[in-house]
Amino acid sequence: MDNAIEAINLTKYYDDLLAVDHINFEVKKGEIFGFLGPNGAGKTTTIRMLTGISIPNEGTATIIGYDVQRQPVEAKEQMGIVPDVSNVYNELSAWDNLIFTGKLYDMPKTYRESRAEELLKMFGLYDRRREKVQGFSRGMKRRTCIAMALMNRSSILFLDEPTSGLDVQSVLIIRDLIRKLNRQGLTIFLTTHNIEEASQMCDRVAIINHGKIAAIDTPEKLKRTVESLQSVEVAFEAIPPDALKELAELPKVSEVVKEGDKFRLITHDPSSVLASTWNYAQSNNLKLITVNTLGPSLEDVFVKLTGIRPATMKEELGKTDRGGGQSMGQGRERR
Amino acid sequence: MKDMHSSHLGREVRVAWAITVKDMLTYYTRPPSLMFGILFPFSLFLSFSIGRNAPLATQIPILISQTLFFASSSIGPVVIPSERANQTFDRFLTSPVSLLSILMGKTLAGIIYGAGISVIPVLVGIAFFGSQIINLGALFACFLLSSLAFSALGIMFASIPGQTPGQVMMPLNFVRIPLLFISGIYTPIRELPTWMQAVSMLSPLTHTVELARYASGGETFFGPILNIIILTTYAAAFLFMGIRFHIMNQRKE
What we know:
A: alpha/beta; Rossmann fold; six-stranded mixed beta sheet; five-stranded antiparallel beta sheet; 35% helix; B: mainly alpha; 79% helix; globular
């Protein structure tokens, strides 16, 4: 049994709406598997079916070979779950939250207490273990929630948007922790819409869109599928008013995206665009402060597969079509 | 094999009890529990009892029945929507325990709450108003079966997919309040017309009132055996329907 998770023909309807459409995938033991998709694509519905919260209309999900619907107790013993909302008991202390979780898994008293102590120390919460969780910061609640998911020494950890809405320090702590847990042999199933996070952390990613799996592969292999999407990133000391329009008119530039104080010129021929950008700067007396050539990123793959893309020149200039697009605005691969 | 079954059963019982204790610690003192479980039955009792000629000792069974009814049936509608709102109910659904044990744990929290509060009017009645408990067995059956049936009623209503106690309490009160008027609380059943007596027999609250009266030496219309049979039937039916409705919710989730 090499697979930690198998989804076979998994399907979910909400009345007439087909939220998850006969999806198939497997997650190997010891992998960090990313599940990417725009809002409403079916990520959380899938995780809810895999963890037994929701019953699929069709198909099956197995956890270490146990059918989640037919052998729920065996399957659920193998998993820990961190949902998108930190579902801790605010009225209880951090200690009581962990102890109660241990009771739900019927862990013996001495074992659950030693495990709770170990986890609270690992997550830097031990000194505040007697405080009610309602006084904790969002990052601390998230850490408590992850600690609760690890109480039963599960072999698979489901994380639904684990870093969403957290401050930078908490994000870094949680990412580091996920990597550590994975090195200890834990299989991680991670849903996120943070593409950079998925690119940095995951061994493989699946992209789900409109309830269907659009692609599954390693981040690098996925990037290779859109190798033609290269770009030149430039920043000027002072931005001329018509820069967006004028840069778009340069030869071999197919599209210009403004990203903060930088412009990204999408092209098949970065060397030609570099030269023409240099000429443009010279002729307009502009001082270039940044020039980078960029390879395709996982975001480009995501954009290509889902149709969701950052604001383009047309949208920046016209600002007429705000409803259709969802800006992702993530980092890119520098070359 | 037998050991496996007994250990599995033991595990389910331990987890159900852990859920009960957690609910007791977390929800017993929440304002909706206090309001619908304690204030509501006591206020109703006072508003209907003050000014009546009947001696208070004869009205204590009414207060016992009302507190059993309201307090037991209020815990599920407070706990489950609150847990649904902050997604802590999902914790149970993802833990290795059956839905039956989860709901039994919650039902037990309602039973302890209802029965615990209803002991107060029994003690107050004996201490201050000359009430007597003639049949302790009938009182025990009244407490056990009524709190079980009404707690299960609350759990069944809590399957309504709301995220605030009010979303469940409102439809529940559409059932609870009319039951007060057909259950022989304010008008003795033998004074009702025949068709109303038949309707009254269908109300579980009727049988709680009857058993409470019987325990304190009063008369019963349907008899304690029928009271026990009907309350047991309702308890089983509410539990069964509650589980079915919660499974239906999971299919819709």
